Amino acid sequence: MNFWEKLAKIDRRIIYLMLLLVVMIPIIVPFKLHPKPMPPVEHLFNAIDAIPSEKALVISVDYTPDTEPELHPMTYALLRHAFAEHKKVGILCISLLGLGLAQDALSTVSNEFNSVARTHADSIIYGRDYVFWGFQASPLVPILGMGENIANVFPVDYYGNQTDTLAMMKKIKNYNNVGILVSISASDTPFWYIYFAQTSFGVRIGVGSTAVQAADYYPYLNSGQVTGMMSGMKGAAEYEEMVAKKFGISGRRKATEAMSSQTAAHLWIMFTIVLGNIGYFALRRRKK
Amino acid sequence: MKIRLPLLLVLITGIFGVLTYVIPHSAIQNADNEFRNSALVIIGAFSLVLGVGSIIRHHIDKVQRKREHWEYSWVLLLSLLITAIIGLFGGIEGNGHLPTHIANFHFDIQTIFLRMDVPLGATMFSILAFFMSSAAYRSFKARSLEATLLLFAAFIVMFGSVPLSAYVSPKIPHFAEWILTVPNTAAKRGMGFGIALGGLATSLKIILGIERGWLGGTK
Question: Cβ(A126)–Cβ(A88) under 8 Å?
Answer without folding.
Answer: no
